[in-house]
Amino acid sequence: MENLSSSSPCPAEPVSPFPFSYALIADSKGSDTFRQRPSKNELNQRTTSGNRVLLVGSIRELALYRAEVLGAYGFRVLTPQTAADALRVIRRNEFDIAVLTYTLPTDLVEELAEQVRQSCPKCPLIVISDSKRADPRISPDQTVLADDGPAALIAALRQVTRQP
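The structure corresponding to this sequence follows.
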């Protein structure tokens, strides 16, 4: 097995693939303004109120660093050391949000994503990638560019947990 970084049901909603759009929206004072409204994808995105993050990556030190940063923002992070450990966590639904990183082989990411969808279909899935191109076989709720650093991952986690 590959070396990787280390109870309640997972709440959330289904996903839709539509992008952002602009709309004429009346504000609270009754005046009309153009602003970006959430896309159908955002409105139907899987969300959770939980803070348990399953973070799976092949570079242990990087996973532990990310876990430490996320912990400072109130997330409880599990960083399994092997793919087998990650699969056990997934099958036991010991997480609210799954984060898979680009450092894993593509076939392993696909397998783990499939297991997440089977074991906890309502749990949000975030992929940290080296490109914004989404893999349709994985179908993440959020894709975070690795080069954007921890702030981008925190923003994606806040979005799927609906935190400000």
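The two ends are 38 Å apart (CA to CA).
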